[in-house]
């Protein structure tokens, strides 16, 4: 079974169309919307759409805006309490195109974690100015160098996990809540020697609404990578599953 965790805050204008595209791409996939009490009525729309999509769409309603990282953690725990074997992260603003879902699922047959990458051959971004491109590229290089990660894109939020990865990376101990959350999850999986594969995606800047990037999120990412580096031995020493190979897509610490 497969499920997409879709955090939302004021995404009512995007959601119906996005869900239609997702289900058109992968008919048997499930979606869990984790809504932080959106003032625009996103949660109410999900409840209406649940009648249309029956047992393929679910809502986890939270009392307020609690942050991206905690939304994903709540969604992961919900999925792990059920029989989902493949668990996706995806944005609700069309920046992550559903057309890549089938590629993710193909690669997940031989990799424990699949990363959507803007910075490998075939990947890229649209509608970003030069400053935004430099910030993103620089942030990736910064995190990769400090943490010793071999991947080209460690800040992206389009991913597919095998359930055992999320079961073993100690979700209760994840402290990041902004974009550094994406770095932390990948780093924890890397330290536990799970096989990780990057696949190219074109990141499409959101068509409606407001970007989630802020100075606070950027500042958290700068500090968090040093905290993760300092905790490397503890994170690596925690119990983890037996290592297995995924052929040429394997990335080991």
Order of helices and strands: EHEHEHEHEEHEHHEEHH
Helix content: 40-55%
Estimate the mean pLDDT confidence: 88
CATH topology: Spore Coat Polysaccharide Biosynthesis Protein SpsA, Chain A
Beta-strand percent range: 15-25%
Shape: globular
Classified by CATH, the class is Alpha Beta
- Strands, total number: 9
Low-confidence stretches: 240-253
Termini distance? Answer: 29 Å
Number of domains: 1
The CATH superfamily is known as Spore Coat Polysaccharide Biosynthesis Protein SpsA, Chain A
Largest beta-sheet characterization: 7 strands, mixed
CATH architecture: Alpha-Beta Complex
Per DSSP, the total helix count is 9
Q: Which structural category fits the helices and strands?
A: alpha/beta
**From the alpha-carbon coordinates, what is the Rg to the nearest angstrom?**
17 Å
Spatially, the strands of the biggest sheet line up as 3-2-1-4-7-5-8
GO molecular function: dolichyl-phosphate beta-D-mannosyltransferase activity
Keywords: Glycosyltransferase, Transferase
GO cellular component, one term: membrane
Family: Belongs to the glycosyltransferase 2 family.
Features:
253 residues; alpha/beta; Spore Coat Polysaccharide Biosynthesis Protein SpsA, Chain A; seven-stranded mixed beta sheet; two-stranded parallel sheet; 9 strands; 17% strand; disordered C terminus
